[in-house]
């Protein structure tokens, strides 16, 4: 579909322009340097006013809460995303729907876990990510087995095809929920990956990079987290998304891994992952594996903007903005708790 | 203190150059600073410089005050939103209040805090009451629906049918024989309300979860309620669900819960339901009364706030602006005074001093606030005082680039040249008149229109109403010259051509289609006194005649315009004492322009005056100009205009050629020579600026200028700059002259287009006879009028405007205008400027 690039601007040019405009509003290193100097949350608000965020906090009464900032950041992002979604044409609209599916998975898992712990559904709903909300969400609590969940609720949602593999699970306990989550995610990632490959062109290239990394990251994390649990190696191998660079050789080796060192050995075979694992430590000034993964993700997402005429920018912009929200909230949290020691542990974007 | 400024203007300042500015330092006593800044803001004549550009917004001195102002602003916004919701209008204050004293902040804070909390309390009450009322209303709807349902045998039968199927599955056939009434009672049911947009999903989910074992009936009568919290309308419907058994009940309830459906208790018995409905009616009445009372209370409060809110908003905004300005200042080491730096017009120094005095008096400060001027190498901002007439023209110039400090401001000349050049392209009496009248209407209703924004496009046109007025007036004038009124001509003075009947007898005239007129016999010798003779309207060679005329006219106008631009550069050179530029740039530029293109203008006039239809030779000017350069020294016989033409032309070409190396090398070589001999005197505002820092010396009122660093001399750079300028000028003279031909091209296009419109839409219809012709003309005229306005006035007008703009920006202004200055932006508290800022 190489010719799609010539006609790209006809259907999606305006939205790409908007998206790139939003991207220019992402906070820079200079902004972060100013933010970490803030003494109070009011200072933070004042500085954010001079950035692209503008007056998004102006109607909040003082004193500000970190939670309010978090909510408002998310609200702004969601409004922007939905604006783009509402104006998009196929296949971009489909692509953007795919992005929301991951939030839907998170929401479902959140709701099931919540019901498992006897929380009222009205208490759980506000905690769900608005990008992943769907009509039947609130009635998840009626399901007590995965089959019921599928038949009653999920069958009408776009997640239905991803869920088919999970129906065989018997009951819902913590372990199974985690398995459901990972199976769902695996199916979702593979489907999204194929979807992007079918679109072809620069989208396939850029999104291929990003989604492969996403898949591999999940493989690593699943493996590391499974140590010391009752998850069998066979079951674990079933959870690995098979669209990353680790597939197939790396996954076979990962499936056999027994401890962290063996995982690290697998990573040694792959240039970019070796770098990530090499600089990891648990000390206060050292970065955790999670942070290193985030950094790499940011790098890939920033690179997505180097090419034109593809959908990857929409995904990357959303992910970068999310990282930015995490950063701002982290800084706000440090300021609010008067714990400035770790304030520099945000992940800079530009 | 002595002002250290030369050239103090004695009278009001003209628009020819931007106003003389001076950098001044203000020493404000800490307690008087606020009042002084407030007075200066009301005056609106000083442009403060940020003295702490490296300090973060939140680390400045008055940041807490700014924040407090913002908090009050937020409360005001909240109150205004509430007013909008309840439809309470605010009092518009005609007289904007002055900036409040700093003490008033505390008062306003407590006042609005009280309003806010009161209102929130009342709103909370209203909300819970409204919610309660809503529930009762909904219960009423649900009960009536249930009542109706049970009275309707058909629907009961449907429910039974579901039940029967159920029974077969559940308990075999044992219950089939029971009587229907009992059966319905045997079923359990739940009723409630659901939002309309959830209806479908709700039904579907119910069907899936209960495996078709529940019967749902949703009322066809939907109704809307107002959400007590947000006030928006929601459409809802009542429903009733039948099912059997407790397990299903639990599920149904969960679904209702999940889909945001509200479930209401409903008695099984019809009598109970009836009495409950009656009971409800009285309860709803009661609660509505209470609700009305608290609404009244809310309105009273809002009306009270409405009286002051607009005023308070302006006050708090002014206050915030003042604190923002104070944040730009430096704090003195002793913490007793604030130091500010500002640019101010020399002309208004006295007013500024008075304002400072008033500010100090207001705060009863013992030590007066001090203003003193400092000398600086920094370029002052550009400030042109405009009025409602000149502002549009100034904007036209500023859109290209803000003038350098005190350089000649082209806006002054643009006032006339712009509409004129426009009109040359738009020359049509009728269209010009329409445009003029439109602008006149805008001007007469100026006061109404300027009050509020009427959309971006209209505001743009309205802003340029005086430009449009002049454009229209000039178009009427050029239209008279071209003798063109919507493609027709006026015969005011009587044509200068005669039509003797002996030469052209009636029989010949009526039989031949075209008659060639011999000027020797038919021209009366008295030319038409003003503009083009109307007889040309009938001529077949009208275009050839007008083209030659308009083309020459464009060249003449263009060269005059450019020459004028070059002359204006002389004013700049003299004013900035840049004498090198006069000798090395201005003089060769003028000679170059005049010797080739000036000569062209002269021979155009010469040809108009001397060559007539009776002349033997009719030399072409274009060929004359080309041969003047290409075959120097020879003029062909048939191209000869006057005696000695060859010699004059050789002289002129040689002059022009000499000018090129003069311009190219003169200035760089002179500067190089001067540099070698250590000659450092510079003009008043040298073109090579060094950003000198200001050194405040408190002991001495006269501030010492930092010793100038001698600007580094780079011969290569100067030479290249000069070479670029020279090439641009020499080539520009040719290409710009050609560029002015657009005057001809556009006026031709305009005239042709208006003729086409006439011929296509009216010309034929007007010849039709009888009633049908009348109707046809009626329709045709509407068509013609609409396309005249849309195509000729709007589209052609815009295109001519654009070309006039280009001729000014490029062809005219590149002869003298630098346009790299920055605007004077005074700190002002005048309300009318706010909308532009925000």
Structure description:
The complex is a heterodimer of chains A (350) and B (838). Chain A is an all-alpha fold and 350 residues long. Helix content of chain A is 65%, strand content 0%. With 838 residues, chain B is of the alpha+beta class. In chain B, 58% of the residues lie in helices and 7% in strands. Chain B contains 25 helices and ten strands. In chain B, strands 1, 2, 8, 9 and 10 form a five-stranded antiparallel β-sheet that branches. In chain B, strands 3, 4, 5, 6 and 7 form a five-stranded antiparallel β-sheet that branches. Chain B starts with 20 loop residues before the first strand and ends with a helix. The chains are: A mainly alpha (350), B alpha+beta (838). Chain A binds chain B through residues 34, 37-39, 42-43, 46-47, 49-50, 58-62, 121-122, 135-142, 151-153, 155-156, and chain B through 56-59, 63, 67, 70-71, 74, 77-78, 198, 201, 204-205, 208-209, 251, 254-255, 257-260.
Largest interface: A-B, 30 and 24 residues
Flag low-confidence runs of chain B. 1-10, 167-181, 682-709
Residue share in β-strands of chain B: 5-15%
Tell me the helix content of chain A. 55-70%
> Which secondary-structure class do the elements of chain A indicate?
mainly alpha
Shape of chain A: globular
Radius of gyration of chain A: 21 Å
Q: Which descriptor suits the 3D outline of chain B? A: flat
Low-confidence stretches of chain A: none
Would you count the extended β strands of chain A for me?
Answer: 0
Number-wise, the strands of chain B total: 10
Largest sheet of chain A: none
- Helix count, DSSP H or I runs of 4 or more residues of chain A: 16
Helix share bin of chain B: 55-70%
Distance between the termini of chain A: 32 Å
What is the arithmetic mean of pLDDT of chain A? 87
Please state the oligomeric state of the protein chains shown. heterodimer
Helix-strand category of chain B: alpha+beta
């Amino acid at each position: 579909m190489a010719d799609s690039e010539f006609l790209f601007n006809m259907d999606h040019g305006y939205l790409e322009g908007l998206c790139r405009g939003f991207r220019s509003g992402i906070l820079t290193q200079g902004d972060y340097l100013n933010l970490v100097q803030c003494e109070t949350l009011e200072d933070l608000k004042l500085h954010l006013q001079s950035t692209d965020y503008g007056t998004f906090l102006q109607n909040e009464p003082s004193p500000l809460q970190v939670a309010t900032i978090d909510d408002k950041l998310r609200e702004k992002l969601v409004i922007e995303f939905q604006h783009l979604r509402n104006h998009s044409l196929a296949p971009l609209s489909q692509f953007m729907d795919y992005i929301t599916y991951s939030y839907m998975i998170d929401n479902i898992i959140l709701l099931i876990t919540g019901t498992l712990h006897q929380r009222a559904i009205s208490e759980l709903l506000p905690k769900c990510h608005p990008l992943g909300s769907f009509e039947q969400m609130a009635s998840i609590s009626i399901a007590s087995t995965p089959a019921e969940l599928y038949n009653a609720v999920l069958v009408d949602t776009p997640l239905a095809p991803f869920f088919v593999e999970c129906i065989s699970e018997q009951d819902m306990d913590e372990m199974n929920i985690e398995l459901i989550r990972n199976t769902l995610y695996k199916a979702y990632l593979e489907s999204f990956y194929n979807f992007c490959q079918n679109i072809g062109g620069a989208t396939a290239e850029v999104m291929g990079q990003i989604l492969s990394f996403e898949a591999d990251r999940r493989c690593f994390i699943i493996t590391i987290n499974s140590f010391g649990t009752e998850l069998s190696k066979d079951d674990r191998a079933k959870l690995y998304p098979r669209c990353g660079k680790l597939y197939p050789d790396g996954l076979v080796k990962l499936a056999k891994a027994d401890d962290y060192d063996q995982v690290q050995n697998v990573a040694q075979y792959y240039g970019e992952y070796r770098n990530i694992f090499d600089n990891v430590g648990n000390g206060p000034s050292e970065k955790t594996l999670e942070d290193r993964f985030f950094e790499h993700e940011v790098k890939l997402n920033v690179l997505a903007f180097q090419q034109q005429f593809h959908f990857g920018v929409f995904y990357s912009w959303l992910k970068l903005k999310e990282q930015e929200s995490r950063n701002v909230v982290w800084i706000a949290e440090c300021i609010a708790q008067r714990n400035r020691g770790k304030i520099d542990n945000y992940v800079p974007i530009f | 203190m002595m002002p250290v400024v030369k050239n103090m203007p004695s009278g009001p300042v003209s628009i020819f150059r931007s106003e003389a500015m001076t950098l001044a330092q203000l020493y404000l006593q800490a307690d008087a600073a606020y009042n002084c800044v407030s007075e200066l803001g009301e005056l609106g004549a000083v442009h403060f410089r940020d003295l702490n550009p490296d300090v973060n917004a939140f680390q400045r001195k008055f940041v807490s005050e700014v924040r407090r102002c913002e908090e009050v602003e937020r409360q005001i916004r909240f109150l205004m939103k509430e007013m909008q919701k309840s439809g309470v209008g605010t009092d518009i204050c005609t007289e904007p209040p002055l900036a409040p004293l700093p003490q008033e902040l505390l008062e306003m804070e407590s006042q609005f805090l009280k309003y806010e909390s009161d209102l929130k309390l009342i709103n909370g009450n209203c909300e819970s009451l409204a919610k309660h009322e809503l529930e009762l209303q909904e219960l009423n709807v649900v009960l009536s629906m249930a009542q109706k349902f049970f009275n309707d045998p058909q629907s009961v039968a449907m429910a039974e049918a579901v039940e029967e199927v159920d029974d077969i599955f559940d308990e075999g056939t044992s219950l089939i024989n029971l009587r229907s009434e009992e059966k319905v009672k045997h079923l359990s049911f739940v009723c409630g309300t659901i939002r309309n947009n959830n209806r479908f999903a709700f039904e579907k989910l119910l069907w899936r979860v209960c495996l078709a074992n529940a019967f749902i009936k949703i009322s066809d009568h939907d109704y809307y309620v107002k959400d007590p919290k947000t006030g928006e309308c929601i459409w809802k419907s009542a429903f009733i669900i039948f099912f059997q058994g407790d397990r299903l009940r639990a599920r149904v309830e969960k679904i209702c819960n999940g889909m945001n459906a509200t479930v209401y208790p409903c008695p099984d018995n019809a009598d109970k339901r009836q009495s409950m409905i009656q009971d409800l009616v009285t309860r709803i009445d009661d609660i509505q009364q209470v609700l009305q009372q608290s609404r009244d209370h809310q309105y009273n409060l809002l009306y009270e706030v409405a009286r002051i809110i607009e005023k308070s908003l302006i006050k708090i905004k002014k206050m915030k602006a003042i604190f923002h300005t104070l944040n730009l200042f430096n704090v003195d080491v002793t913490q007793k005074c604030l130091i500010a730096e500002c640019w101010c017009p020399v002309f208004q120094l006295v007013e500024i001093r008075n304002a400072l005095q008033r500010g100090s008096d207001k705060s009863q400060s013992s030590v007066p606030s001090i203003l003193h001027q400092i000398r600086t190498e920094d370029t002052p901002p550009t400030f042109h005082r405009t009025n409602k007439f000149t502002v549009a023209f100034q904007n036209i110039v500023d859109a290209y680039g803000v003038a350098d400090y005190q350089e000649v401001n082209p806006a002054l000349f643009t006032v006339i040249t712009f509409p004129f050049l426009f009109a040359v392209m738009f020359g049509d009496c009728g269209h010009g008149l329409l445009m003029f009248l439109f602008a006149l209407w805008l001007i007469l209703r100026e006061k109404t229109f300027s009050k509020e924004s009427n959309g971006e496009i209209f505001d743009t046109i309205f802003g340029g109403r005086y430009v449009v007025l002049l454009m229209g007036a000039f178009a009427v004038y050029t239209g008279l010259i071209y003798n063109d009124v919507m493609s027709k001509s006026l015969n005011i003075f009587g044509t200068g051509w005669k039509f003797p009947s002996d030469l052209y007898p009636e029989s010949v005239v009526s039989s031949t289609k075209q008659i060639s007129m011999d000027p020797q016999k038919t021209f009366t010798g008295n030319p038409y006194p003003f503009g083009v003779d109307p007889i040309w309207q009938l001529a077949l060679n009208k275009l050839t005649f007008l083209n030659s005329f308009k083309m020459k006219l464009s060249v003449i106008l263009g060269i005059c315009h450019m020459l004028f631009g070059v002359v204006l550069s002389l004013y700049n050179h003299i004013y900035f004492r840049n004498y090198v530029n006069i000798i090395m740039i201005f003089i060769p530029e003028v000679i170059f322009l005049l010797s080739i293109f000036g000569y062209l203008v002269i021979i155009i006039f010469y040809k108009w005056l001397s060559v007539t239809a009776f002349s033997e030779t009719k030399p072409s000017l274009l060929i004359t100009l080309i041969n003047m350069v290409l075959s120097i020294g020879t003029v062909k016989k048939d191209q000869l205009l006057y005696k000695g033409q060859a010699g004059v032309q050789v002289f002129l070409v040689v002059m022009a050629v000499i000018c090129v190396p003069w311009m190219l090398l003169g200035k760089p070589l002179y500067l190089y020579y001067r540099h070698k001999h250590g000659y450092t005197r510079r003009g008043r505002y040298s073109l090579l600026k060094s950003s000198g820092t200001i050194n405040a010396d408190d002991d001495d009122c006269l501030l010492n200028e930092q010793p100038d660093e001698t600007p580094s001399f780079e011969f290569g750079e100067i030479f290249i700059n000069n070479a670029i300028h020279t090439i641009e000028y020499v080539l520009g003279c040719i290409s710009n002259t050609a560029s002015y031909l657009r005057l001809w091209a556009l006026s031709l296009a305009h005239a042709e287009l208006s003729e086409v419109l006439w011929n296509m839409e009216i010309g034929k219809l007007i010849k039709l006879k009888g009633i049908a012709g009348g109707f046809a003309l009626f329709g045709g005229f509407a068509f013609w009028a609409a396309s005249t306005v849309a195509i000729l006035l709007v589209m052609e007008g815009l295109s001519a405007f654009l070309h006039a703009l280009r001729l000014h920006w490029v062809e005219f202004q590149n002869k003298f205008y630098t346009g790299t200055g920055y605007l004077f932006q005074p700190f002002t508290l005048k309300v009318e400027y706010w909308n532009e800022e925000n």
